[in-house]
Amino acid sequence: MLDVRNLTRRFGGLTAVSDASLRVEAGEIVALIGPNGAGKTTLFAMIGGFLAPNEGTVSFCDQEITGLKPHKICQAGLVRTFQIVKPFAKMTVRENIAVGAHTRIKARRAALERAEAVARQVGMEPMLDQQASTLTVAGRKRLELARALATEPRLLLLDEVMAGLNASEIAEIVPVIRKIRDSGVTILLIEHVMQAVMSLSDRIYVLNNGGMIAEGTAGEIASNPNVIEAYLGHGAQERLAQAGTDA
Amino acid sequence: MTDPSIILASLINGILTGAVYSLVALGLTLIYGVLHIINFAHGSLLMLCMYAVYFLFSIFGLDPYLSLPLVAVGAFGFGYALQRFVIGTASHGRDEITLLVTLGVSIVLENVALFVFTANERLVQVPYDLDGFDLGVTFVVVPQIVAFAASLVITLLLWLFIAKTDIGKAIRAVAKERQGARLVGINVDHVFAVSFGIGTACLGAAAALLAPTFPVAPQVGYSFVLIAFTVVVLGGMGSFFGALVGGLLIGITESLGGLFFGESLGKLGISLIFILILLFRPTGLFGQKANG
Amino acid sequence: MKRFWIAFFLFIAAAALLPAVVTSSFWLDFLTLTLFLALLGQGWNILGGYGGQFSFGHAIFFGTGAYIQVILQSKFGISAWTAIPFSVLGGIIIGLFTGFLSFRYGLRGSYFALITLAFAEAFRILATSAKVVTNGGQGIYISLNREPAATLSRLQFNSVEGYYYTALILTAVSILLAFWIENSRFGAQLMAVRDDEDAAEALGINAFRTKMTAIGLSGAVTALGGVFYVQKFLLMDPSIAYGPTKSIEMLIVPIIGGLGTIFGPLVGSIFLHGLGEASKIVTSGLIGDRPGLDLILYGVALVLILALLPNGLIGLMKGEWRRPGGKKAKQQTPEAGRDA
Questions:
Q1: CA–CA distance, C61 with C47 (Å, rounded to integer)
Q2: Which of C188, C206, C339 lies nearest to residue A98, judging by beta carbons?
Q3: Please, is A64 exposed, middle or buried when counting C-beta atoms within 10 Å of its C-beta (0-12, 13-18, 19+)?
C-alpha cells in the first residue's frame, strides 16, 4: 500500500534522513523505531507532504504522492498525526473530530454524528462537549487519533501516540489501535514504548542517524546486533554477548 | 527634472532626514529584537515626545537640543512604565495579543493628544532654523546637519552600550534565549522594560532632533509608524545596522520619490517597498531568520 | 442552535419596533450608525474572528466598495441599485488580490497585519493622486435626491427611518452569514485553519483556498458597508475611504464584543458606540465639543478587554474572564484529570 523508496532530506549541512526505504502492506501494523533524533518524524513529515524530500519517492496505493500537499495526501487516504499534538483549542472535542469527518462529509449534521461515532470508537464519548484545551495529554493524544480516524483513512501514520501516557493509559490504547486495524485501517506508527511496539507490530523498521539499519519481526529486531548498538551504544553488543557467556 | 544637481540635492536631503528615520527605527528594532513584539505605539510615542519638546520650548524657552537629554530620560521612564505595567501585564506574553495591545495604546495616546492639544500643527521655531551651509547643489540648514550627526552619534553610543555594558549583555541574553536568561537569574521582566524604555528614549532624542523641521500634530504618529516599520522590515527585524542602512535608504526613497512623482505619490514608494519586502524578503537586508 | 434563532428573532423584533419608541431623529441616527458599525465589524470578524487573520487595514474593502458606488453614480450616472453588485464585486476582487499575495507568500500573524496596513495606505495615496477618477483629496459627491417619491429607487431616504431599516436589514443578513459560517463545513474548516493550520492541512483542508474564500466573503460584506455609507452620507474621500479610522473601528468592535462569535460585533458596537456617545454628551456639557474622547475610550476598552476578557463581552456573558497576569476563571470547572 505504501512504498517509500530512498528518501533523503538534508537541512543545510545536516542529513536528517538518508536513503530510507520502507513498505507497508494493506492490513499491517508496522512500527518505525529508533533512538531520539534518528529522523523518524522527518520521515513522517516527508511521507505526509509537509516536507519535500531532496531525493526519493513515496507511492501510496500505486499512486506517486511525493511532493504533493498534505491536504491532497489526506484526501487520497493517508493521514498523519503529530508528535506534539495540535488540538483545535477553541473547539469542543466533537467539533474537533467533525473537522476530520468533513474531509468526506459535506453536511454539518452528518459530520457531527460521525464525530460522535468515532469518539465512541476510541472511548472519548464522555468528553464530547469538553473544550479541547481542557483535555489532559492523554486526552489530546486520543483526540489527535480520533480526528485522523474520522477522515476515513486507508493508512494512518501515528507519531508517538503513546508519548506521555502512563502504564494504564498505554494498556488502554493498545487494544484501541488493534481494533482500528481490524476495522480495515492500515497503520504505520512511530513509537518508543517498546512493549506496545512488540505486541502490536507485524513488522518493525529501525532508523538510526537518518538511515534504515534493520527490518523484521519483533523477535528478529530484538536480537539484531545493529539495533542493540544503536540503542545502547558502540560495543554494547559485544559486552552483552560477553556478559551472556560469562553468566 | 533630470538635472543631476537637483537629484544630488534630493539625495543629500534624503540622507540627512534618513538618519533620523534610522534613529526612530533603531528603537523599534531594539524592542522587536528583545521582546519580539511589534510595537504599534512607536509612532504615537514619538508624537508625544515631540509635544514634550514643543512645550519645553514654548513654555520654558528651552532649545530642543538642550531639552534632548531631558526628553530622552523622560521618555525612557515612560516607556519603562508602559511596558512593565501596561503592555506586559495585558499581553500575558502572547505575541498576537501584544500587537493589539500596542495598537490600543497607540489609539489612546494619539487621541489623548487630540483631545488635549487639538489637531492644530505646532512647530518649534528656533532662531537658527534658516542658518546653514551652501553646498552648491543645495542649501542645508543647521537643524538638518545636527539631526544627521546626532542620530549617527546616538546610534553608535547605543551600539556600544548594548555591546559593552553588563546590562547590554543581559539584554542580548534575553533577546537570544528568554528562558535560559531567566534560568541564570536575569530579571526578564525588568530587562524587557529597560529595552522598551531605551527604545522610547531613542524616540525622545529623535523628537528633539526633528522638532525644528517637523511640525507636530496628533496624526503625525501614524505616518511615522509606517515609515518606522518599513525601515525595520527593510533593514531586518532586530538588526541595528539594518535600521541604519534602512533609514538612509527610506530617506532617499522619500526624497527622490517626492522629486519625481510629487509629494503624495512619492510616499507611495515607501508603502510599495514595505509590501514587496514583506512578500519577497521578510527577513530584510540584514535580519536573522525567524527565531523560535 | 435554537438559542440562536430565539436571540435573532428577539433582536429583529426589538430593533424593528424601536423607531416607534425612539422618536428623536438624533437617537435614531445614532442607532443607525451603531448597526452600520456592527455590519463593518462582522465583515472584519469573518476574516479576523473566524479566520484568525487580523487585518489592520480592512478599510481597503470598505473604501473600494464605497468609491465604486460613488464613482459609478456621480461620474457615470448609473443608478444606485445597479452599482451595488459592482461595489461588492470590487470588495471581493480586492480581497482576493491582497489575500492571494499575502497567503501565497505565507504571511501570518503580525506580518499579515502589517501588510494590510501598507495596502490601505497605498490605496489612500493612490486615491488622493488619481484625481481624474476620484477627485483626489476633495472627494466625490452624489447629488441629493429631492423627489420624495423616488427614495427607494435612488436608495436615498429623506427620513432617518429609511436608513435605519436599511442598516438593520444589512446587519441582519451579516448575522445570518455568521450563523451559517458557524454551522457549515466551510466554517469548521476555516476555524480549524485558524486554530492550527498544519493540523488542518493534515486533515485534508486546503488552507490557502479556505483563507481566500474567507477574505473574499469578508471583502464583500465590508464593501457593502461602504455602499451604505455612500448612500447615507452621499460623499467619499480618500481619508474616509482608506484612512486608519475605519480600519481601527472595524477591528475594535468584534474584539471587544467577542472574536469569532455571531453577535460579538453587534454587542461590541452597541457597547462602544454607546460609550463613545455617552462620553461626548458628558464632556460637551462640561467643556464643550472636543474630538478624540470617544476614541480614547475605545483604546482603553481594547486594552482592558485584551487583558481581562479574552473572549470579549460575549465571553463575559458566558462567565469567562481572566485575572490580569494570572489564570482564567470559568463558572463551570472542567472535569479534572481523568479523560479515558
A1: 12
A2: C188
A3: exposed
Contact: B282, C125; criterion CB under 8 Å: no
Grid coordinates representing A69 are: 500537499
Please indicate whether, in this complex, the C-beta atoms of C295 and B104 are within 8 angstroms of each other.
Answer: no
pLDDT in tens, B137-182: 788 888 888 889 999 999 899 989 988 898 888 888 888 888 888 8
Minimal C-alpha gap between A177 and chain C (Å): 14
Q: Which of C50, C45, C4, C42 is nearest to C186 (CA)?
A: C50
Which string of DSSP letters, residue by residue, matches A81-96? Answer: --SS----TTSBHHHH
Number of H-type helices and E-type strands within chain A: 10, 10
Read off the pLDDT of residues B103-120 as tens digits, 9 standing for 90 and up. 999 999 999 999 899 888
- Is pLDDT above 50 for B61? yes
SS3 C4: helix
Name residues whose C-beta falls within 8 Å of residue B61's C-beta, 6 or more positions apart in sequence: none
Considering only the C-alpha atoms of chain C, give the largest distance between any 2 of them, rounded to a whole number of Å: 71
- Residues C119-135 have a mean pLDDT of 87
pLDDT at C336: 37
Q: What is the DSSP string of C170-224?
A: HHHHHHHHHHHHHTSHHHHHHHHHHH-HHHHHHTT--HHHHHHHHHHHHHHHHHH
Question: Which backbone phi and psi does A230 adopt, to 5 degrees?
Answer: -60, -40
Q: Going from the N-terminus, what domains does chain B have, and what CATH number goes with each?
A: 4-120+128-280 (1.10.3470)
Helix (H) or strand (E) holding B59: helix B42-60
Residue C322 confidence (pLDDT) above 70 = no
Q: Give yes or no for a contact between C244 and B222, defined as CB atoms under 8 angstroms apart.
A: yes
pLDDT > 90? residue A144:
yes
pLDDT at C189 over 80: yes
Confidence (pTM):
0.90
Q: Residue C53's closest CA among C211, C183, C253, C255?
A: C211
- The DSSP output letter for B214 is S
Give burial (CB, 10 Å; 0-12/13-18/19+) of A119.
buried
Topology adopted by domain A2-87+151-246 = Rossmann fold (3.40.50)
Report the first-to-last Cα separation within chain A, whole angstroms: 46
Closest CA–CA distance from residue B103 to any residue of chain C (Å)? 8
Contact by Cβ (8 Å): C324, C309: no
Among candidates B202, B210, B208, which has minimal Cα distance to B162?
B202
Strands A63-64 and A78-80: unpaired
Q: What is the ipTM of this complex?
A: 0.88
Q: Which residue of A has its CA nearest to C201?
A: A71
* Nearest one of C281, C227, C211, C208 to C91, comparing CA atoms: C227
**Among all chains, which residue has been given the C-alpha cell 488619481?**
C130
Contact A127 C260 (CB under 8 A): no
Q: In A150-187, which residue ranges form alpha helices assigned H by DSSP? A: 167-182
Query: Phi/psi at C60 (nearest 5 deg)?
Result: -60, -35
CA atoms within 13 A on the CB side of C87: 30
Cβ <8 Å between C198 and A82:
yes
Chain C residues whose CB is inside 8 A of the A82 CB are 198-199, 202
